[in-house]
Specification:
Putative MFS family arabinose efflux permease, cell membrane, 16 helices, transmembrane helix, mainly alpha, 0% strand, 2 domains, MFS_dom, 393 residues, Growth Hormone, Chain: A
């Protein structure tokens, strides 16, 4: 029983990863409430917090060398919850914008522990299983924020921010069931091992590239849906939700897939993401677009879980929090870089439509998948030859 409550307390933290995006359904309502504020500035309510999650994540990783993870977690969750709720009672746009920065800092302090605590307390098949379920909890949070936040926001945009009350539940679970002393606590060792290795940097770059390409789907979706008359903003929201549904489903089966495919699960994950975007680029039906989002969401969740497993196996107990912080920051940078990537493409090739960008992205993901297959196959062959040589010797 104690093990399962520990799992629940750790997994509940993952529900906060997507909470910043919960404001998305009411951005248009906020713009109408503040007509003198530009649309670009209103969009900063969504993007600005993500910018601050990156340095906060890195700081969190270094703080774990001196403070217990539970202490940092409780502070981060509390900061996220309080700053998230404040806009319910505020009608000054610039004050809301400032408060949203603190929300980003709070989430940034929390997200490194989504992975590092699983590495600390679990091993083997249990660890692989939890990496998959962790993605499921992220998706459950995403669906909750988009659906509940949208419904409440339809009543009054201020009510959208009530979704942050979920932080009180997470605080309770962490306080009750997460041990106060870190399992791998060794402050002296941390000082010498906190630096990230070349292998870990490569993994972080790979997950950054995957996040960048996969996030192109949501970055250009509204332009495709509304621009071609497939639907409206509500249609875009529903299609986006299907990416979370796909991620939820894939997370449940990651452990089994990982045991069957081993490292080739990355190849499958990136291929599915590419397939989802390719289907989206070649359909004019909202229903098929939802299927494309489902497939892409499955690939996205599997890729993150697979790379998490890689980064965990490459990290020591003492250094995994800082490494995880860099890893999660790489994902955040990839996601936030997708709009810039698509804008640059549109600027360089003005004739490039949203479908053209989708097609190019799908091709890049298929090449990524092929390269991963070849590299993993060569690595496994070398390992097999080396093992045979050792056995003969």
């Amino acid at each position: 029983m104690k093990k399962y409550t520990l799992m629940l307390s750790i997994l509940s933290i993952s529900m906060l990863q997507a909470i910043i995006s919960g404001i998305s359904p009411v951005l248009a309502d906020i713009k109408r409430a503040f007509p003198d504020v530009s649309e670009v500035l209103v969009m900063q309510l969504l993007s600005l917090p993500f910018i601050f999650t990156v340095p906060a994540s890195l700081i969190s990783g270094k703080l774990s060398e001196k403070l217990s993870k539970k202490t940092i977690l409780l502070f981060g969750i509390t900061l996220t919850t309080v700053s998230g709720i404040i806009p319910m009672f505020v009608s000054n746009f610039y004050l809301i914008l400032i408060v949203r920065i603190f929300t980003g800092i709070g989430v940034g302090l929390v997200i490194p522990f989504m992975v590092s605590l699983i590495v600390d307390f679990f091993e083997g098949s249990e660890r692989e299983y939890l990496f998959g379920i962790q993605g499921t909890f992220v998706c459950i949070g995403s669906i909750t924020y988009y659906v509940l936040g949208g419904l409440l926001g339809a009543i009054n945009w201020h009510l959208n921010f009530s979704i942050f009350f979920i932080g009180l539940l997470v605080i309770t679970l962490v306080m009750l069931y997460l041990p106060g002393k870190d399992k791998h606590e060794n402050k002296a060792e941390n000082k010498s091992t906190a630096l990230i290795s070349k292998r870990q940097l490569v993994i972080c770059f790979l997950v950054f590239a995957a996040a960048l390409l996969i996030s192109v789907f949501t970055a250009r979706l509204s332009f495709l849906i509304t621009g071609e008359g497939i639907g409206n903003a509500a249609t875009t929201g529903i299609i986006t939700m299907f990416t979370s549904v796909g991620g939820l489903m894939a997370g449940l089966y990651f452990g089994k897939l990982s045991r069957i495919l081993n490292r080739f699960v990355v190849t499958l994950a990136i291929f599915l993401a590419g397939l989802g975007i390719f289907i989206a680029a070649n359909t004019h039906q909202a229903g098929i677009m939802m299927l494309a989002a489902l497939i892409l969401g499955s690939g996205s969740a599997l890729s993150v879980a697979a790379f998490m497993s890689m980064i965990a196996s490459a990290s020591s107990g003492a250094s995994n929090t800082f490494v995880t912080a860099v890893f999660m920051s790489s994902i955040s940078l990839g996601m936030s870089g997708a709009p810039i990537f698509t804008s640059v493409l549109s600027h360089l090739v003005p004739s490039f439509s949203a479908r053209g960008i989708y097609t190019l992205t799908a091709v890049l993901l298929f090449l990524y998948s092929l390269m991963s297959f070849l590299i993993i196959s060569i690595a496994k062959k070398k390992s097999f030859v080396s093992q045979n040589y050792i056995n003969k010797a």
